[in-house]
Amino acid sequence: MAESVSSSVGGQSEVGQLETVLLKDAWAAFESVERVAGQWRTLGWSALPDLHQAGEESAALAELLRSLGVQVVAVPPDGRVGMDSLYVRDAAVVCDRGAILCRMGKAGRAGEPEALRATFEALGVPIIGAIEGDGRLEGGDVVWLDDTTLAVGRGYRTNESGIRQLRTLLSNTVDDCIVVHLPHATGPDGVFHLMSVISPIDRDLAVVYSPLMSVPFRETLLARGVTLVEVPEEEYHTLGGNILAVAPRRVVMVAGNPVTRARLEAHDVEVHEISGQDIALKGSGGPTCLTRPVLRRPVAAG
User: Fold this and answer.
1) Among residues 157, 5, 167, which one has the least CA distance to residue 84?
2) 136, 103 in Cβ contact below 8 A?
3) How far apart are CA 105 and CA 75, in angstroms?
4) Rounded CA separation 296/101 (Å)
5) Cα 197 to Cα 182: distance, rounded to the nearest angstrom
6) 23-48: buried (b, 16+ CB within 10 Å) or exposed (e) per residue?
7) Which DSSP state fits 135?
8) What is the pLDDT of residue 1?
9) Three-state SS string across 137-206, please?
10) What is the pLDDT at residue 44?
11) 3-state DSSP call for residue 232?
C-alpha cells in the first residue's frame, strides 16, 4: 500500500524543492532473475542487469532521496508491466491539478500508465485525464520550463496527437506549450526523449547535450536567460546529462561523469552521486527517468 501524503500533488517545475516522488524498486520492476533473462534483449537493454546489484542500487537511490528530505513512495509490482517500468517517470505527467496518464510510444511499455493509476489513487492524486486513441506521449518528453511553460519533445515516443491531447488537458494550466522536434538519433528502437538532451537545474541553469538539441529550442532557452552547462560527448553516453534536481542547484546524478560534475560545481551546484550500472546505464535511464516527481515546492521568480 502506498504511503499517504499531506498535500497530494503540485509544483509545475523540474527544479522546485522535491517533496514527494514515486520510485519503483528494481525488485518490483524485474521480479525475478528468470523474468529479467527473458526480457532484457527484447526491451533493448544494452546488457543483462544483475538483479541483486540492481536492487542495491535502487535501495541506495531511495535512501539518498530520503536523506535529502524527499518522501519516497514505492510503486508496487504489477504483472501487466515489464522491466522498463523501473523508469517510472515515463508513464505519467503531473501538474498542479493532478496526473495525466500517458500512452506509451514503446509497445513493450503499453501497460505502464494504467498500472500506475492505483498508486496515484492511493495517494489521493486526481487523475485528470489520459492520452487516448492514436495519441502517444511519454513523460520523458515533457519538461516544465517554468510553472506555466511546458516543452514537449516530438519524436518516436511522442506524436502530434499526444501533444494535442496534452495541450487540451492542460488548457487551464499552461500558458505556452513549446513543441521541440527531436532528431532521429539512434532510430525508433532507441531510447531518446527530450530529457535525453536537457536536465533543468535551476530556473536559469540547465545541463544540455547540444549536438542533439534542436537549434530553435536551444535559442529559446538562451532567450529565456538560461545558462547552458554542456555535457561532453563521452559523458552523454554515460548519462552525464540525465540529472534530477531535488531543489534549485541541488542534484542527483550518475557517478562516473567527472567533467559534467565539475562544470556543475563551478555554478555552485551541490552534487550527489548514485551508482547506476544496473538500474541506469544498462537500460539507458538516469535519475530523472527513475523518478516520477509528484509534489514540488514552487520556486519563487527572481
Assistant:
1) 157
2) yes
3) 21
4) 19
5) 10
6) bbbbebbbbeeeebeebbeeeebeee
7) -
8) 33
9) ECHHHEEEEECCEEEEEECCCCCHHHHHHHHHHCCCCCCEEEEEECCCCCCCCCCCCHHHCEEEEECCEE
10) 93
11) coil
Q: Return d(Cα 170, Cα 160) in angstroms, integer.
A: 15
Q: Return the pLDDT at 4.
A: 40
Residue whose cell numbers read 498500472 = 115
Averages of pLDDT over each 10 residues, the chain, 302 residues? 53 95 97 95 95 97 98 96 97 97 96 96 95 98 97 97 98 95 88 95 97 97 98 97 98 98 98 97 97 90 59
CB proximity list for 161: less than 8 A, separation 6 or greater: 133, 134, 135, 136
Q: Where are the beta strands (DSSP E) in 30-97?
A: 71-74, 92-95
**Any residues with CB less than 8 A from the CB of 107 and at least 6 apart, and which?**
none
* Digit-coded pLDDT (tens) for 11-31: 899 999 999 999 999 999 999
Q: Model pTM?
A: 0.94
Q: How far is CA 10 from CA 2, 56, 204, 209, 265, in A?
A: 18, 30, 21, 28, 29
Count of residues in the chain: 302
Cell reading at 101: 496518464
